[in-house]
Write a structure and sequence with these properties.
Blueprint: H1 2-31, H2 38-44, E1 51-52, H3 60-68, E2 104-109, E3 115-118, H4 119-123, E4 127-135, E5 147-148, E6 159-168, H5 169-176, E7 184-195, E8 198-207, H6 208-211, E9 217-222, E10 225-226, E11 236-238, E12 251-257, H7 264-268, E13 270-271, E14 281-282, E15 289-293, E16 297-298, E17 305-307, E18 311-319, E19 325-331, E20 339-340, E21 342-346, E22 353-360, E23 365-375, E24 401-406, H8 420-424, H9 442-449
Length: 455
């Protein structure tokens, strides 16, 4: 049975890799710069109020979402598996507490046999454990200068690669038996709230073809432990290779339909040029991306990194969904020059790969580190820029930036290092020369505060 599961996963990964390439091509054609940018949107919606041209005007509402929907701890990129408490979380509404003993999953709609399964019945089915990299569709939203501010202000840190244990969705659907005309599978979670002006449960769908590929899992364990409430207990789906919104938490029902359903979470998670865009492109498979665990140690507030001069091994991870990674490049001079990093194998068909680079620092000063990934299908990350735009600020892959101060004093506990200029730079009005130091140049401020979670 295990061999059959592995074979199904391999076939699914091959199909997903091809689909990922098509998804990226469609995205770039519709909202990729220079095909579409900030100035184009302004012509479409001159009275739009949901976007801002500043990065230091975070609202209290955004802060509230950022506290509820926490990112990963960037230093965990040094580890192969993301710990449960460090894995990113996006919780749209409230965490529903479901009783595992009375829980039932219903499978209904265009099926020959409707099912109502208890958690023990689901756990008794043949299972698999897979390392799956998950990232939020809003990753990098703060990198877009024309920011969509009525959502979570993600930097690069909405990621996690855990080991998920569960059974096959495809096998469950085959057991229920699909009736003629079945084209869409709708997944409903127990979480309920108001979004887009409508009272709703969180719902997403997959085509029947995607649902039957063999890689989608009904999951009840994370890193060997029963799911925690915030991660979807007692049951969720995991759609390997897709953005995280597809992996519905607190799963209560699976409904097979003839198609045509397009709920709010389908509309919200699509690449759009404007609020109403008939040409929208749904978010599906993950793009390629590389991130690094910042070297040295951080200042508490600004998160500016401090290292002593010498050689430092910079370690990170790269992912591309089901696609293999071709290479990762590292820069210590803000992208002026790039060097090829050492790349290891992925942790699984839908996992991530470790990379590292031995960086020889200057004797002292400030450096801006960057990294970028390229996959075996020719996909690469977005080029840095302020003209990139899509309506909800989704899917940004501009390279991570890490601000590093090189100072010999970093070797000695108790020594003094003046990081007041870095702290003051968090407010544009305070980024001026004082007795404590000079104002930071614009590119240094950008490296420190453009993408929260990078440091």
């Amino acid at each position: 049975m295990a061999a059959a599961v592995e074979e199904a996963l391999k076939k699914a990964a091959l199909a997903e890799a091809e689909n990922a390439v098509k998804a990226r091509e469609a995205t770039l054609a519709h909202v990729g710069y220079p095909n579409f940018g900030k100035s184009d949107h302004e012509k479409l919606e001159p009275d739009d109020w949901r976007h801002t041209d500043r990065r230091d005007d975070i609202t209290s509402a955004e802060l509230q979402l950022a506290k509820r929907c926490h990112g990963a701890h960037i230093e965990t990129l040094s580890q192969e598996v993301t710990a449960v408490g460090s894995h990113y979380l996006l919780i749209h509404y409230d965490v529903p507490y479901l009783n595992a003993e009375t829980f039932r999953l219903t499978v209904c709609g265009l099926v020959e046999k409707e099912l109502s399964l208890s958690l023990p019945e689901i756990r008794s089915r043949p299972s698999t454990t897979q390392a799956v990299l998950m990232a939020c569709a809003g990753t990098g939203r703060m990198s877009q200068k024309h920011r969509f501010w009525t959502h979570v202000p993600w930097g690069v840190d909405s990621f996690g690669c855990a080991e998920w244990t569960g059974c096959s969705l495809a096998d469950l659907l085959k057991e229920a038996g699909l009736k003629p005309g079945a084209k869409q599978v709708i997944f409903t979670g127990a979480d309920k709230g108001v979004e887009g002006g409508k009272v709703q449960h969180f719902q997403r769908s997959l085509s029947v073809d995607d649902a039957l590929l063999g890689h989608v899992m009904l999951v009840y364990r994370m890193n060997g432990e029963a799911l925690k409430p915030a991660h979807g207990a007692p049951l969720r789906i995991i759609v390997p290779g897709w953005y995280g919104m597809a992996s519905v938490k607190w799963l209560t029902s699976i409904e097979v339909t003839e198609g045509g359903w397009w709920g709010h979470q389908m509309e919200a998670y699509s690449f759009r040029r404007a609020a109403d865009d008939p040409g929208r492109v749904p978010l599906t498979q993950l793009p390629v991306r590389a991130l690094m665990a910042p070297p040295g140690f951080p200042d508490f507030f600004s998160r500016a990194r401090v290292v002593a001069p010498g050689t430092h091994r910079v370690v990170g991870k790269a992912w591309a969904g089901a696609v293999e990674i071709d290479r990762v490049e590292f820069s210590a001079d803000h992208g002026k020059t790039w060097a090829k990093a050492t790349l290891e194998r992925k942790t699984g068909l839908f996992g991530w790969a470790t990379w590292y680079y031995d960086w020889v620092t200057p004797a002292e000063g400030t450096c801006i580190l960057k990294c970028r990934g390229f996959d075996a299908k020719g996909r690469s990350q977005d080029e840095p820029g302020d003209d990139d735009f899509n309506w909800t600020g989704m899917g940004d892959t501009q390279p991570q930036m890490v601000y590093v101060r090189i100072d010999p004093a970093a070797e000695t506990t108790g020594s003094q290092i003046n990081l007041i200029p870095e702290t003051r730079a968090s407010k544009s009005t305070l980024n001026v020369a004082t007795a404590d130091g000079a104002a930071l140049e614009a590119e240094l401020v950008d490296a420190l505060y453009r993408s929260p979670g990078s440091q």
